[in-house]
Amino acid sequence: MKYILLLAIILWGCGSDEKKPAAGMTDNVKGKKADKQINLTILLDLSDRIDPAKNPDKPEHSQRDSALIDYLADYFLSQMKANGTYMAKGKMRVIFHPNPPDPGINQAATKLSIDLSKMDSKGKKNIYETLKHTVSDNISSIYSTTIRQAAWPGSDIWRFFKNDVNEIAIDPDSSYRNLLVIFTDGYLYHADSKDVVGNRYAYILPDLFDKYKLRNDVKWSEKIDKLDFGLISKRTDLDKLEVLVLEVTPSAKHKNDEDIIRKVMDKWFAEMGVKKWKIINSDLPETTEHKIESFLRG
User: Fold this and answer.
1) Are 134 and 86 in contact (CB under 8 A)?
2) pLDDT tens per residue, range 161-198
3) pTM here?
4) Are the C-beta atoms of 285 and 64 separated by less than 8 Å?
5) Cα–Cα distance between 265 and 250 in angstroms, integer?
6) Superkingdom of this entry's organism (predicted)?
7) In this predicted model, what pLDDT tens digit does every residue of 12-52 receive, in sequence order?
8) What are the chain's domains?
9) How far apart, in whole angstroms, are the C-alpha atoms of residue 277 and residue 181?
10) What kind and span of H or E run contains 106?
11) Cβ(238)–Cβ(180) under 8 Å?
């Protein structure tokens, strides 16, 4: 009898009344039985990269971010369905580093912190039915508030990797797939992190590309290798972490900045022992979604 009851619960969790994942997500991603539970961390850079006055691209960068976060929420739901709602133990969170001074922004992010492993079937069903709406509303609140205030708190991505990534983005339980998604234009900087060791830095700024004469130099890659230019690496233990960097946006006047940023980040992730990573430039959300899907499927 207990086996019949268990089967009924699992079938209920995958029932036809559930919301469907996004149409753009292929069966290879949305329908495959998940080998591991998902542990998804989304790190937002609320710098002036999302300022519509400074970067008047269409769609606006806040809109691109929002669309891609919706897509990631769909992926979380697809993994939930693949495991069966009863068995789903996925985790998801939206974070900043450091936290913005506005309590409303932090409160909105708190509403996007989910741990299915601590929920009963009723709680999981509620998450499945409401997550898309919850994500859409709170991400909209985060971006609209940030743009209205125009304070641009930014993100200390380098220090996050130095001090906190292991505790926040990596679950010690080996049954989880740890995925960190970072939204940034690729120019990493925060006032709290200005460390310099030789030709290594705690930041990536256009001024450095000018200082080392990397722009408009066909031998820029060889120069980086020769000078050992790049980001300071403070750890080598991230072999259980996968990283997606989204919305890299090079200077309009220096398009090859994207290549420099990519090489610097590739070197940094490799030195830290990151299991797998992909760096994706800013594009129409539909195009970026296909690239994300390829990463998630691999």
Assistant:
1) no
2) 999 999 999 999 999 999 999 999 999 999 999 999 99
3) 0.90
4) yes
5) 14
6) Bacteria
7) 444 434 444 444 555 555 545 568 999 999 999 999 999 99
8) 2-14+38-185+237-297 (3.40.50)
9) 10
10) helix 103-110
11) no
